[in-house]
Design goal:
Shape: globular
Mean pLDDT: 88
Largest sheet: 6 strands, mixed
Number of helices: 3
Strand content: 35-45%
Structural class: mainly beta
Length: 472
């Protein structure tokens, strides 16, 4: 009898242990995604048809920017966050490139500054007025020329002010001091083939790249040297992507030899074998990873997919834990990811995406269900703010800067005076409309256009007067 009782107790204990293993404890297990209603979308926008694997969208708490179709050159649209609903076809665009725009990214330290890379081999820096555009923007604040083929990857430095990374189809990676308009570091011998992705680590002391030669590399950006590399993180020949996650680990997405999509986690201290490698499905779209260091969640958005998968990255095996999937009917042409300071903390919003359809941009909100309306400090640790911790010249000389963190407890309040975008005009090849006073850039631009239009009108009137005089 005793032995029977003992057996029963041990089996119930083992069942309990098994159930604990099956259901992992996590506050993010019930995260759910929800698309906003139609009146909160941006409608009737012709999203670019270019076949390029970039996000095609960039967002911050002030603006949403999308690459759009343009005849005779390249253009992107920048809308104030509040300008939802149907967008008029005549709405002004940023249209200074002579070839299609391939990538855009807002500066993390100034919400009015955005960079664009194009098929015309140039990188341009633009300043958007606070109220948005009232006329087409054709003159950049700075034009950066140094690539010999199209520029498809842009990434601002996370902590250094005015440092921008660009990568082109010439297999060259350039680090720019934007304020001086100078290419300070040029890595042209590291990558023998097309660069698929390039990103910074949290303090910007390292760069992680993936390349068509099936090699993933961690670089010292200022020395231009390869610190570590991993050949064939994924066996397939289709593009791979890689991002830094917590504790310096690396998460990569790619394809198996049988063209199955995979996600893997790597420890750079031991690159021989992945910590985990999981097969997901057999879709053909490249998986774009978005990592949130505050929650440890990585979101995988496939171009051409109609879903967003999300996983939690932890220190416990199998390290990358599947949470859930947001699904919809429409496939995505691109995806924008809102910085943490742009989220609604009172609704327990932990991420917000801006999904590009063929003719619209649809915000998707990721929420952790909580009963209380109070600030949930376990969901919102101090996060990266808009303040840089080091200037470009200092960073290129070797000084690193940790991210400057802010609390979201009372919601993010933008500083009354944004970090000014100063340009050393004498050092630039292209003159800048807003170099003297950055805040007047948009006004100067619209005044120039008015003067141009007036001149054209005067010329037209003079021509008519001459025609009338000749008839008399």
């Amino acid at each position: 009898m005793n032995s029977f009782a003992y057996c029963g107790r041990s089996s119930s204990q083992s069942n309990f242990t098994m159930s604990r293993k099956v259901v992992r404890s996590s506050k993010f297990r019930h995260v759910f995604g929800q698309a906003l209603k139609t009146d909160q979308c941006y409608d009737d926008i012709r999203i670019s048809q270019m076949t390029w694997d970039s996000n095609f969208c960039s967002v911050n708490p002030k603006f949403v920017a999308m690459i759009v179709d343009a005849s005779g050159g390249g253009a992107f649209m920048v809308l104030p966050m509040s300008k939802t609903g149907r967008i008029d076809m005549s709405y002004p665009t940023v249209c200074g490139h002579t070839g299609p725009v391939l990538d855009i990214e807002f500066c993390p330290h100034n919400d009015n500054i955005i960079a664009s890379g194009s098929e015309d081999c140039s990188v341009m820096i633009w300043e958007i007025p606070d109220a948005g555009l009232t006329s087409p923007l054709t003159e950049p604040v700075v034009k950066l020329e140094g690539h010999s083929k199209r520029v498809g990857i842009l990434s601002w430095h996370p902590t250094a002010h005015n440092v921008l990374l660009s990568a082109g189809c010439d297999n060259v990676l350039i680090l720019w001091n934007v304020a001086r308009g100078q290419a300070v570091v040029r890595l042209d011998t590291v990558h023998p083939d097309l660069i698929y992705s390039a990103c910074w680590n949290r303090d910007g002391s390292q760069i992680l790249t993936s390349c068509k030669d099936k090699t993933m590399r961690v670089l010292d950006p200022r020395e231009g040297t390869v610190l570590i590399e991993k050949e064939k993180p994924h066996d397939g020949s289709r593009p791979t992507r890689a991002v830094f996650v917590s504790d310096g680990k690396i998460l990569s997405t790619g394809f198996s030899r049988m063209s199955e999509r995979q996600v893997a986690l790597w420890d750079p201290e031991n690159f021989a074998e992945p910590l985990t490698l999981q097969e997901l499905d057999t879709s053909s779209g490249v998986l774009l990873p978005f990592f949130d260091p505050d929650t440890g969640i990585v979101y995988l958005c496939g171009k051409g997919d109609s879903s967003i998968r999300y996983f939690e990255v932890t220190d416990e095996a199998p390290y990358v834990h599947y949470l859930s999937m947001y699904g919809s009917k429409e496939s995505q042409k691109g995806m924008g990811y809102m910085p943490k300071r742009g989220l609604d903390v009172h609704k327990c919003e932990i991420a917000r995406f801006y999904k590009l359809h063929e003719r619209k941009c649809e915000p998707i909100v990721m929420t952790v269900p909580r009963k209380s309306d109070l600030f949930q400090d376990d969901l919102y640790p101090d996060t990266v703010g808009p303040e840089p911790s080091v200037e470009a010249d200092e960073w290129f000389e070797g000084k690193d800067g940790r991210p400057v963190l802010i609390s979201l407890k009372d919601g993010f309040v933008a500083p009354t005076k944004a970090k000014e975008f100063k340009v050393h005009k004498s050092l630039l090849k292209t003159s800048s409309a807003s170099a003297g006073n950055p805040q007047d850039g948009g006004e100067v631009q619209s005044l120039r256009k008015e003067v141009k239009d007036l001149r054209a009108a005067v010329e037209e009137l003079t021509k008519r007067m001459k025609e009338l005089e000749s008839k008399q």
